[in-house]
């Protein structure tokens, strides 16, 4: 025993950190903008320092802008997109609540699992991976299940499909239910009008369309959703993500809740500032233009896309792996020989597609050119 404890105290010698510089064109993370990385290097202040509290206010204002919402309760959760996802479910779900989830990919299933863990009576409406729900299908499902919450994934990263949201909020109001939307792969890259579309709860991440490292995740709740939270019979079953507590840190009271990851918030603020400077509409248009350039180039290489053009995401494209090719081997060669990351398929689409992300800072013609050239060389072999 003594020997082993002595061994544990000997010094460990490791070389200083050395990580290759990659072009991250997978499903995320994507490369952060250099100015964002620079902002992240700013020395931290205390999490209750007036300078930091001012920055939190700015993050709230900027998040409302990129999401096109006036929701007072709009914050960044300290954690990745999954934490913000769990925050939406945890705050409005009470045991027995009927939660209807649209499942047309991997992340719909994650919502199902999560809602079940908070005691919801979870129902699902399903579609093959790569397809989306039409309004009349959602209406029928709402009539059948009469849920308290309808949850949809706006940008299904596992399939590359964009779930249209126009009209869904009105439907939800008609059936007196809340609309919860995953915008992890859409925020910053896909047009979103949360208030106009009557979305009640939404969450996202920092590492995709916002062009920031992962770890500080946008979250918003409409006054309707806040009302449901305030009328809870039970406490929110997750202390860390409880908005009745967190809103006191982000709101007037400034009550200590947790030690915010200060530098990540510096980065998020810079990432959002850059988007505001570009203009959110210009940012959406840039994503659309560059993805169309990518699709054209992929088609020239003889490749086809998994999703019908009308519903393809501008941020994430699923490319069918041609018969007889091992997609993993190709992706590995693209990574090791060209320093470019692309993703493989998830779940049902494993081995069938590559997932190519063009998000945030990476949505540029140069990224497309580099990837097309790498694919051309690797496929030629
Ligand atoms: C649609 C969607 N939802 C949720 C998540 C979870 O986010 P994170 O990996 O940041 O926790 C992801 C991650 O890729 C996603 O694509």
TrEMBL record:
Signal peptide: none annotated. This is Alanine--glyoxylate aminotransferase family protein. Residues 46-345 form the Aminotransferase class V domain. Pfam families: Aminotran_5 (PF00266). It comes from the Bacteria. GO terms for molecular function: transaminase activity. It comes from Funiculus sociatus GB2-A5. Belongs to the class-V pyridoxal-phosphate-dependent aminotransferase family. PANTHER family: ALANINE--GLYOXYLATE AMINOTRANSFERASE, AMINOTRANSFERASE CLASS V. PROSITE patterns: AA_TRANSFER_CLASS_5. Its cofactor is pyridoxal 5'-phosphate. Keywords: Aminotransferase, Pyridoxal phosphate, Transferase.
């Amino acid at each position: 025993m003594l020997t082993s404890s002595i061994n544990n105290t000997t010094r460990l010698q490791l070389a200083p950190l050395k990580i290759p510089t990659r072009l991250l064109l997978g499903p995320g993370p994507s490369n952060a903008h250099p100015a964002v990385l620079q902002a992240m290097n700013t020395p931290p202040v205390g999490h209750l320092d007036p300078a930091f509290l001012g920055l939190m206010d700015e993050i709230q204002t900027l998040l409302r802008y990129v999401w096109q919402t006036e929701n007072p309760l709009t914050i960044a959760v300290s954690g990745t997109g999954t934490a913000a996802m769990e925050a939406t479910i945890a705050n409005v779900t009470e045991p027995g609540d009927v939660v209807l989830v649209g499942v047309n990919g991997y992340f719909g299933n994650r919502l199902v699992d999560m809602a079940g863990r908070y005691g919801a009576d979870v129902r699902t409406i399903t579609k093959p991976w790569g397809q989306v729900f039409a309004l009349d299908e959602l209406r029928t499902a709402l009539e059948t299940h009469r849920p308290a919450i309808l949850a949809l994934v706006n940008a299904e990263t596992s399939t590359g499909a964009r779930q249209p949201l126009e009209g869904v909020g009105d439907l939800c109001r008609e059936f007196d239910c809340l609309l919860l939307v995953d915008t992890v792969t859409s925020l910053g890259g896909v047009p979103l009008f949360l208030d106009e579309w009557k979305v009640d709860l939404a969450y996202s991440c920092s590492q995709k369309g916002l062009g920031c490292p992962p770890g500080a995740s946008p979250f918003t709740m409409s006054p309707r959703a806040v009302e449901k939270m305030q009328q809870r019979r039970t406490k929110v079953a997750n202390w860390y993500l409880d908005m009745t507590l967190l809103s006191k840190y982000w709101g007037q009271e400034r009550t200590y809740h947790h030690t915010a990851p200060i530098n990540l918030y510096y980065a998020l603020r810079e990432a959002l500032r850059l988007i505001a400077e570009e203009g959110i509409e210009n940012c959406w248009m840039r994503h659309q233009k560059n993805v169309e350039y990518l699709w054209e180039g992929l088609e020239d290489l003889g490749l086809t896309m998994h999703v019908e053009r009308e519903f393809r995401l501008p941020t994430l494209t699923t490319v069918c792996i041609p018969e007889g090719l091992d997609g993993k081997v190709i992706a590995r060669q693209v990574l090791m020989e060209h320093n470019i990351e692309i993703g493989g398929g998830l779940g049902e689409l494993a081995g069938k597609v590559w997932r190519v992300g063009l998000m945030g800072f990476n949505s540029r013609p140069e990224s497309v050119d580099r990837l097309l050239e790498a694919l051309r060389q690797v496929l030629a072999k």
